[in-house]
Amino acid sequence: MYLVISWPLRKRKNKHAGVKETPCTFWQGNWHVTPLSPPQGHRMILSLSSEGTVLLNHQQLKGEMTYIGTDKWIFRDHFGYRLILEKTDDGTVTLYDEVDDKLYTAEKID
């Protein structure tokens, strides 16, 4: 004999009903960017706006955002090189700079 117990499934109420996070809202803001490999350089600040403006250490970069997704953000500069912010499997965020072929860690500061 088997005993089957069932109950109605309830949806959890969203604390922030009406506030929907889009891929753009996750990426926009200011990020501390630090080189992963030696020599350890100074920490830089990458700023991303919802309008597509990209600043590196308060200097606007010329180019355009080419992709914004939940796990990746790609910016192509006016020379054709890409900056790629990407969420890794362990939840950290990295920045790859094609110009220097370097990988950085990125930590959101606001």
Explain this structure to me?
With 110 residues, the protein is mainly beta. Helices cover 5% and strands 43% of the residues.
Write a compact overview of the structure shown.
By secondary structure, the protein is mainly beta. 5% of the residues lie in helices and 43% in strands.
Output mean pLDDT.
80
The level of helicity is: under 10%
Largest sheet, if any?
A: 9 strands, antiparallel
Low-confidence stretches: 1-16
Secondary-structure content class? mainly beta
Strand content: 35-45%
The side-by-side strand order for the widest beta sheet comes to: 4-3-2-1-9-8-7-6-5
Measured on Cα atoms, how large is the radius of gyration? 19 Å
Q: Count of helical segments?
A: 1
What is the first-to-last residue Cα distance?
A: 58 Å
Overall geometry comes to globular
The total strand number stands at 9
Order of helices and strands: HEEEEEEEEE
What topology does this entry show?
Elements lengths: L22 H5 L1 E7 L8 E5 L5 E3 L2 E2 L2 E6 L3 E6 L4 E6 L5 E5 L4 E7 L2
Antiparallel strand pairs: 1-2, 1-9, 2-3, 3-4, 5-6, 6-7, 7-8, 8-9
Key traits:
9-stranded antiparallel β-sheet, 9 strands, 5% helix, globular
